[in-house]
Amino acid sequence: MPATNSADAGVRLLRAYLDAVTLSEALQTRIWHAAELTLVHASQAIFFTIVIASLSHNLGPALESGASQAGLPPALAHGISSLPPGAAIFAAMLGYDPISHLIAASSLATLPPAIASRITDPHFFAGLLAQPFVDGIRIALLACVAMCVLAGVTSALRGSDRHRRVAVQPTVGDVAVVSQPMAQTR
Predict the structure, then answer these.
(1) Which of 53, 79, 113, 128 is most deeply buried (CB count within 10 A of its CB)?
(2) Is 185 domain-assigned?
(3) Which domain holds residue 118?
(4) What is the C-alpha separation between 71 and 67, in angstroms, rounded?
(5) How far apart are CA 97 and CA 124, in angstroms?
(6) What's the CA gap between 1 and 6, in Å, rounded?
(7) Strand, coil or helix: what is 61?
(8) Is position 5 within any domain?
(9) Which pairs from 63-67 meet CB under 8 Å and 24+ separation?
(10) pTM of structure
(11) Given this model, what pLDDT does residue 184 score?
């Protein structure tokens, strides 16, 4: 009788182990996929944070300078320069021109027709935004290159013997529990 209890305990232990291995493989796969998505989202967030931080530094002066060069009075040019960088990016991506909303219609009416036409042109805002945006992208890409170089140096400092230390895990083949027949798989 003790031998049967020992055999039953072994069978139960083997079943529990196989159930844990089966569940853990699916769970590990789901965790890895979630981690990959999280890393992608995090890298995009870092990239756009760098671009917006650069724009918050460069966009205001570029908008004010461009508006002054277009012939706007200093007070109106300064008003345009207060546009938040996030709003400027989304306006540009959506093809929306915020200049007509930043300058009151009464102020537009007092401007000479050539200047009013120039600043309400859909390409005017895009032209003012272009150089600060390119500068922000350039800074973000340089930060990406720096992070890649740092990752490469860190990886190189780990040493080449790491590959030799990793033990090859034996693959789990078909295992059958003695008291139950194994299901046929094809």
Answers:
(1) 128
(2) no
(3) 42-154
(4) 7
(5) 9
(6) 9
(7) helix
(8) no
(9) 63/128, 63/129, 66/127, 66/128, 67/119, 67/128
(10) 0.61
(11) 57
Q: Which residues, in sequence order, are CB contacts of 21 under 8 Å at separation 6+? A: 172
Tens digit of each residue's pLDDT (9 = 90 or more) over 107-160: 888 989 999 889 888 788 888 999 999 999 999 999 999 988 998 898 888 877
Domain assignment present for 138: yes
Give the span between the Cα atoms of 139 and 63, in whole angstroms. Answer: 19
CA distances from 143 to 51, 138, 159 (A): 11, 9, 25
Q: If DSSP codes are grouped into helix, strand and coil, which group holds residue 115?
A: helix
Place of tokens 């200049």: 99
| CB neighbourhood size of 126 (10 A) | 14
Count of domains forming the chain: 1
Cβ 66 vs Cβ 83: under 8 Å: no
CB count within 10 Å of CB 3 equals: 7
Residues 54 and 48: their CA atoms lie apart, in Å, by: 10
Report how far residue 159's alpha carbon sits from residue 155's, in angstroms, rounded to the nearest whole number: 7
Distance CA 143, CA 182 (A): 56
CB 31 within 8 A of CB 60: no
Compute the chain's Rg from CA coordinates.
32
Report the C-alpha gap between 81 and 63 in whole angstroms: 5
